[in-house]
Amino acid sequence: MEKILDKKHLDGWIAALAEWDVLGPVLEDGIWSYQTASGAVRLDHPNTKQSPKELAFPQREIFFKFEQIKGEPPKLTQVVPDAQRHVAFGVRPCDGRGVPRMDLVFNDHVEDNYYQARRKNVAYVGLACNKPPSPNCFCLSVGGSPVSTEGLDVQMTDLGDRYFVKAITETGKGLMTAAGKLFAEPSAADQKQVKQVHADAVAYPQRAIRNPDGVPAKLKASFKSPLWEELAQSCIGCGICTFLCPTCHCFDINDEVQSKAPLKGQRVRTWDNCQFPDFTMHSSGHNPRENTGARLRQRVAHKFQYFPENFGMPQCTGCGRCVSECPVGIDIVTVVNKVVENAG
Amino acid sequence: MINIQDIRDTARDMLAKGEVRAVIGYRRGSRGMLAEPAFITDPEQANELVWDPTCFHNLSLYLVHDRKFLAHIRKNPNAPVAIVAKGCDARSIVVLLQEHYFKREDVYIIGVSCEGTGVVDERKLAPHLNGFQASNAAFDGDDFVFTTAEGEKRLPAREVMADRCLECRIPFPKEHNAVFGEDKTGRQLEAPFAALTRFEAQEAGARWDFWSHHFDRCIRCFACRSVCPMCYCDECVVDSITFPVTHETTAEEKANRIRWIERSATRSENITYLMTRAMHLAGRCTDCSECERACPVNIPLRLLNNKMEREAREQFGFEPGASIGGQSLVASFLDKDPGDFIR
User: Which ipTM was obtained for this model?
Assistant: First the structure.
């Protein structure tokens, strides 16, 4: 299904999605984030500071509540994610491509009930990048494209005063049908224009990982490279790169005790982060990834070697957030290029 | 004006003569105009050093990293480390010296004066660049000059300078082994604590709303703690392991460890984390504002630290990092302390 939507009808479309919680990019406190649309939605954002991964994988997920009176058996109450349907508008192609990669993680070997319960209620309406929204974009180096539809339910392309809107999935078709009257049939000129816009978008220069196909093998050969420590020398061990990443998914599970007698609390999953020094700390005090070099290697190799080995594709989608936001300039594009180059 | 070649020559000479084992400075990074920390051990690499308005990092953090690494491998330093330090950074080094984190002879301070300006605030700069990314930034008197694909863009520094630089009282690194640039102490472009004073003019209710909003936004990436040279504790209250584990530590002790702060990024936990950090920085924070710059969600952390800094100044006339011989605020007591909180 391909349609044309006049920009002045965008709000009408959103209003027609009454049973959905509609999220749009909002600029507040100097950063863009997805927030429930309370009025007009404007899709003139570069990319959001945080990826939309939290819609299916929130930073904090309560698994169950527990209670125990001394001498009695414990009482567990499962907490089920609410069934509200969410649709995010303005999702950039890199973040769209993050979705199937997260799906693989939370559906491989074990189906993660909490993730799946949320995931099936989320739809992604993408916005093609007519030009790279960040100087650190590199989607073309990781099998992506500024006009990729992977992971999206609908793809919108900005054609000036109107959007070219294409349904990618059945869910996407449903979203468009909900406001059927607002959409017009695309003319031959519209089709021609969208083709041109997409071709220009792909031709726009981006930062690049050189010879991306050879990266996994080169990284494998570089496990013991002294370069890791050198490249990670300035790393401060914070969580910015992973928390903002559309595909980083590591988590921690803790029992948060609210009272000891009677025992009362909840089991909670929270995001964790391979760059935190205590991430791999053993209870013996031994830490197998004891320096920033080992930790940077883990993050880079997970994206560019282990994930390709397991699933046949890089996990990184080239959004450039970790590059732009690192407080000390650690740049995954440079890191990969340097390590690969050094591997010979 | 500082001629960067002078700093490079100094670094090269010291490395070549073996007087220092490394020079920690700034070099051009791989993303646009931004400088990044550089760790130079080869004299030939000294020419990579840069000094420009994007040298915002407080490199004294890496003296702490170095110290921790040496302790880990149980070695003593065989030569000092040289470090490029602005006024605020040099005061951080002084605080670390006051706290005996390392010895004065372990560090060679290459002071750089911020002269008439300071460092740029990327958030203030962005709207001036019309979506373009600058590939270079340079000092030029009272201006900053940025190079973009559109050409050269000259801006009065005070329009895009970091707040802390506008309010800076001590833009010159008093404690140094070598120093570059003129001492322009007293050039202050805004009154000290100007941003804090503006903020505090609001009603208590408005202030609470403001902080509740921001505390809710914290994603607990700990960038503020991790980038701070004063946050050097081996055991931090926010970490999952908040005490040293030895072979004698029992499973029960590990399981029953005290967790002061849960990992959930909820308001109560975020407040506990951020307020604990602010309190622990009282009389130690030298307003380098790296925490606020690093924060990915723009929480105005500087206001918290400034509040504590001003309390220390007004109550005790205390200036963090003023002189090595000086006492640290929390480890000292004066007869003239008013003590008027005791009733």
Answer: 0.94
